[in-house]
Design goal:
The protein is an alpha/beta fold and 220 residues long. The protein folds into two domains: 7-107, Rossmann fold; 150-218, Winged helix-like DNA-binding domain superfamily/Winged helix DNA-binding domain (Arc Repressor Mutant, subunit A, Orthogonal Bundle), CATH 1.10.10.10. The protein contains nine helices and nine strands. The chain has helices spanning 16-27, 44-51, 67-73, 87-95, 108-124, 132-144, 155-166, 173-180, 184-196, and strands at residues 7-12, 32-34, 55-58, 61-62, 65-66, 77-82, 100-103, 200-206, 212-218. A hairpin with a 2-residue loop joins strand 4 (61-62) and strand 5 (65-66). The protein starts with 6 loop residues before the first strand and ends with a strand.
Length: 220
């Protein structure tokens, strides 16, 4: 069931079984919801206008058209999921703005990694004004996929992220270390990694002596 802030994803694939499988992969990633897949390329513009997806998952070769032509026609972020490995097709997809290109068949984890990276990319570019550092970081996060953040299965990382997310205000490194029960150095390492990946927000607060202190808060 869709939550208000979930990113909506539209799968476009003429193979009903594959489309359903990819939609299920999307639904398994927190923060994403799959719209009913579309199998006929001719109906995609109408569905996009009606449902306003955040992201398209497009096959290249479709009856009655091409996913590459849709990328040129529609102003929507897109991943290409295709068995097409010909150089011209891949180059065209990237030239027309594909944010990821996954060769079918692929493991569920691969798409999940790209979706999580896409969510971080969106958060990093959410500000009204961006500097060069933020733009470069967003591009690195998007391209690196799962390498953009430390392993999501790390218990300590998850504990640090949970502590920051649950706090009503920004926390210092010392406060996070005490909340999780780890050393200051370990807390600093995980906080830096999470901030770089866009999963938490880094700010500065100046103390009584004028010395800046890093503060970490949840991404809202």
């Amino acid at each position: 069931m869709s939550e208000g802030n979930d990113l909506k994803v539209l799968v476009v694939d003429d193979d009903f079984r594959v489309a359903g499988l990819h939609a299920a992969y999307v639904d398994a990633v927190p923060g994403f919801v799959a719209l009913p897949p579309v199998h006929d390329v001719r109906t995609v513009p109408r569905v996009v206008a009606e449902t306003r997806p955040d992201l398209l998952l497009l096959d290249v070769y479709l009856p009655h058209g091409s996913g590459l032509d849709l990328m040129r026609e529609l102003d929507v972020d897109a991943f290409v999921l295709s068995a097409a490995v010909e150089g011209p097709a891949v180059r065209t997809a990237l030239r027309r703005g594909a944010l990821a290109y996954l060769v079918k068949p692929f493991e569920e984890r691969m798409l999940a990694d790209r979706l999580r990276a896409y969510a971080r990319y969106r958060r990093l570019l959410a500000a009204d004004v961006l500097d060069q550092t933020a733009i470069d970081r967003a591009r690195r996060v998007l391209l690196a996929g799962e390498e953009a953040a430390p392993s999501s299965g790390a218990a300590t990382e998850q504990a640090v992220l949970a502590a920051v997310s649950a706090a009503g205000d920004e926390l210092s490194v010392v406060e996070v270390a005490e909340a999780v029960g780890i050393s200051r150095a370990t807390a600093q390492r995980y906080l830096s990694q999470l901030a770089q990946a866009g999963q938490i927000r880094l700010g500065l607060r100046y103390g009584l002596r004028g010395r800046p202190e890093h503060r970490y808060g949840a991404v809202r």
